[in-house]
Amino acid sequence: GAGIGGLTLGLMLHRAGIACRVFEAAPELKAVGVGINILPHASRELCALGLEDALAKVAVTTREYCFYNRFGQHIHSEPAGRFAGYDVPQFSIHRGDLQMVLLDAFIARAGADKVMTGWRCTKVEYDGAEAIAHFEDVNQTDVLAAVVIDVHFFGAPALIGRVALRVGGKGRDLQEIERHAIRARHRENSA
Who contacts 28 (Cβ-Cβ below 8 Å, separation ≥6)? Predict the structure, then answer.
């Protein structure tokens, strides 16, 4: 989906040179949610994606944590982010603002056509080194029969590589890559 995790993965795949599309069930993306904290371990990954300046424009750079009891009496304080010695900041941000920063970055780098809204994944089938993700149009105007995914293994995790999109109903093709070509490529790479 085009939430925080999906868009971050999309940016990381793009950085690694792996083409991808992000499918989102919601018909449109809106900045919704509540305030969250991006701790240094997560901030480090986002900063490595070149997002520090964009995040700093919409977030508060957290200086310290302060804890109080229900009567307003101070219990404990400690520094946060760079003020605690980390090499990256800690951000306090609205979840929707974070999502929009990620979406803007993904669109700028990969293209607006790589974000597919209104498509819900209904199931994924695995066949060796290939996976087929099935989608449905939440607006019921078309049926996306299958997305063929050529899965590449780098150690234990699988990163999604080439994607073939076949849209049924109106017979539109978003991208023409035949399944046999993907299987042939996988066999060549395995040999």
Answer: 117
